[in-house]
Queue: 2 jobs
Job 1
Amino acid sequence: GNSVTQMEGPVTLSEEAFLTINCTYTATGYPSLFWYVQYPGEGLQLLLKATKADDKGSNKGFEATYRKETTSFHLEKGSVQVSDSAVYFCALRLRYNFNKFYFGSGTKLNVKP
Amino acid sequence: NAGVMQNPRHLVRRRGQEARLRCSPMKGHSHVYWYRQLPEEGLKFMVYLQKENIIDESGMPKERFSAEFPKEGPSILRIQQVVRGDSAAYFCASSTDRSRGNTIYFGEGSWLTVV
């Protein structure tokens, strides 16, 4: 089947620390991969995406590379800020059924000053 | 340009009552999606609708749940005879079309608590 597994949270970091949130997937077809972010009290926002193997999505200092060989799409940021505190969701969408997303359970990030 | 608007944000219902969740898509969007997030789980697809049509309801529970997106007005997710297990966050999303590259935009969610 299709599923996404991401590391459990919460992840607590100090400001300017390096961030990695792991995400791996299983898919019956060739998926596009996404990271969504949910800030407190807000809806999910698209953070970045990658549509094919070896693509790197990036936005606001966050990056993730589509690794087909390891079926992974880990989220990284070199220096986190307090304002990055949020819940991060990894998701996939299949090319033949692009109306349906499969989400991971979310990873809460707390960044302390 | 307002985003996807959901209401109510929080709803408390007693077991056996009905819950109605509303979603107004972004301006110009004619495609609506509903997702459910149970505690400690990721979002799970429920249903995909266009105006006056249900396109994919493969994620909807077989009983008590229904969804509509009328020609005029918001999309409604209706849960009849709620049970404690229906307590969850319900997210609506919308998009302009169903093309492969489309971006869908999520609302802030409606939190249903069944007591």
Job 2
Amino acid sequence: QAVLTQPASLSASPGASASLTCTLRSGINVGTYRIYWYQQKPGSPPQYLLRYKSDLDQQQGSGVPSRFSGSKDASANAGILLISGLQSEDEADYYCMIWHSSAWVFGGGTKLAVL
Amino acid sequence: EVKLVESGGGLVQPGGSLRLSCAASGFTLSSYEMNWVRQAPGKGLEWLSFITISGSTKYYADSVKGRFTISRDNAKNSLYLQMNSLRVEDTAVYYCAREDDLDTFDIWGQGTMVTVSS
């Protein structure tokens, strides 16, 4: 089982909100991890969005709109990237990442379609 | 302008070697920890390796441990990835990424393509 699992795809309408999940493998407690989120558009390297551990330990990337925010669902053992007021430019691949067992680990990524 | 530029990619046969370079400009490499990340065609991101500022500590993904070696030359403002015993499955775009003091990968290069094929 992968350390981080993300749904392969998600679609939402312009102006709506999208909740992208990053589920940690059973036995790895989401509460103890900072979760980092990156956005990647076709043909470009990833860009850092934000990191979230708790409401007191979170950080927004430079220039990243406040429409992007992080949270956790402890019951699902998952980190969440919430994008509100979806815009066409938000269509991209989104990756979560954690530091686990002396290694950075990426989730498989979610392709977000805005249509 | 703060920038990372990778070079050294290309076509190599299985079992061959390649050395990637990552040149930093607009900032002092010696102030940052650094990483290598790759992305196979049409696939997701895969972290490969991390190196501390001094180069004294290095970490590797299991998939490349024993085959790849990360290093840096702070005097030359450069990061390197020596790749040996290359496999077809190592075919990917290879990115170097700067890790800031908040442990975010805040600056990425544009990537260099490595193709392993006979």
